[in-house]
Amino acid sequence: MIIKLNKLYEEELTDCxxxxxxxGTSTPVKGYHPQQNVNIAFVGEAPGAKEADYGIPFVGIAGxxxxxxxxxxxxxxxEVFITNTVKCRPTVGNRGKKNRAPYASEIKACSxxxxxxxTIVNPKLIITLGNIPLRRLLANNKATITDxxxxxxxxxxxxxxxxxxxxxxxxxxxxxxxxxEDLKVLKRLVTLQx
Length: 194
Ligand code: SF4
What we know:
Elements: H1 2-13, E1 40-44, H2 49-54, H3 60-72, E2 81-84, H4 104-121, E3 125-129, H5 131-138, H6 145-148, E4 153-155, E5 158-163, H7 168-171, H8 175-193
Parallel strand pairs: 1-2, 1-3, 3-5
Antiparallel strand pairs: 4-5
Helix pairs in contact: 1-4
């Protein structure tokens, strides 16, 4: 797994040649993988400023909330694969300061990388974080995390559990209880897949 992922990142992603609106706007952020095979993958939306700076998914404020999720699930970063649906940072305005959700054209352009990552890692359980990875894996652009959170579906042979994005609690505290309940259910699934 590690050799194949590194090959994908070094030979294709780092020098991405896709026709994509985000081409050249930031350095693509690779997935985070431990030095062992894992059964669980987390898929986020797209890198923010901190992720793009550090080249690691889920750092900064959302990253702190993400680590709290892992703690609730009795998991560490070294037991999971972590990546984003779109690998470069989308901003309001070209190279702007404010993050935005990726557009459909960017998700489509970057979709091959996520597909290859998931084929290589071959997780038994995928946890999507927020709207973007949910829509991508469900192949339904109208799906919302509000409707789908906690509802299992399959992507190839993997179970997919949609969870709210960890950044969402920062601006909507009312989600804390909803996410807490979802994490309780997810914890049981994680225990089975570890
Ligand atoms: S978002 Fe994906 S497809 Fe677009 S330039 Fe970055 S790596 Fe390439």
